[in-house]
Amino acid sequence: MGLEEEIEAIEEEISSTPYNKSTESHIGRLKAKLAEKKEKLENQSSGGSGDGYAVSKTGDATVALVGFPSVGKSTLLNALTNAESEVGDYEFTTLNVQPGMLQYRGANVQLMDVPGLIEGAAGGRGGGREVLSVVRTADLVLFLLSAFEIDRYERLWNELYENKVRLDTEPPDVTVSKKGRGGIRITSNIDFGLSEEVVKEVLREYGIVNADVTIREPIDIDLLIDAVMENRVYLPSAVAVNKVDLIDPTYAESVREDLRSHGLDPEEVTFISAEKEKGLEALKDRLWEDLRLIRVYMDKPGRGIDYEEPLVVREGATVGDAMEKLGGEFEERFRFARVSGPSAKHDEQQVGDEHVLADEDVLKLILRR
Ligand SMILES: Nc1nc2c(ncn2[C@@H]2O[C@H](COP(=O)(O)OP(=O)(O)O)[C@@H](O)[C@H]2O)c(=O)[nH]1
Ligand SMILES: [Mg+2]
Fold first, then answer.
1. Are residues 186 and 132 in the same domain?
2. pTM
3. Structural domains of the chain, count
């Protein structure tokens, strides 16, 4: 039996086995085995070369633009960035990854237009694997949907899930520290929803026989597998609905209904027309928010405050992080900093490198000579 048949057989067995306390361990083992086999299949079909799609990450953040062919990805990229992406009336106009740089509030946000993510992409068909590898390295996934095909959201989401991209969720709060001996010891203050036997079965399936396992939140088998496997990526996502210029006002409510029926809140979605350049400011704003970027204006000795080209860092960044982004030498010569603006108690507050910055702070570094 080939790998693909083995995978199918396991999938079949899982779906035909009723889930209850007595079958839980068995299903746990099957799911672990399935994840393992899929991994193996992927490594086989990747063939090692991985050519052509290595678009390097540059700028302050990267957004992967994900959508079916012809939803308007190239049109949007052209409207938002300096890239020239081919726009076509037919499917598959974008065959390669197209990067473009969006300048917004002094930040450089790299937008990646990736070829249509089609069903089966996670299995390696249609260049989907390369698409997915680009997505995995992004800081945010932007789903682009056509107003007329909202239902495709689920298929896109599933492709990403299959490729171990977990959206809008934190890693499961489970730690597994492998040990030399002592068997598997499970510690938890809560009823985490699985029997200890299942946890052990799943771990054993991955060759873990000695470990301290701490479970701090309710989990299921899939989350447990996520916790054990180290190759899951956790990304935020946003949704834009394109081609709204074609929507008749009377049809708008049915689009909102469509969104709700696919688990999307219409209030959280950005409605745009890439072609008519409508809604693009709201979209940029949305990306900015979701990427959690903040601007820090540097007060440079002798040159004053640079409001033109802010240092762009992530929310939660400290003075130390800012220095790291500026480049090495500052950290070594750092004495203290003076901060004015939203994060400061008063103007020119003296702070150390642990101080957490906020959007539109003014930062002056006081360095040793
Ligand atoms: N009416 C309308 N057409 C659009 C819009 N955005 C894209 N299109 C058209 O949809 C087709 C496919 O667009 P394209 O950007 O190539 O889609 P891609 O395959 O996702 O890159 C082209 O004919 C575009 O002109 C829009 O907002 N409104
Ligand atoms: Mg295109």
1. no
2. 0.84
3. 3
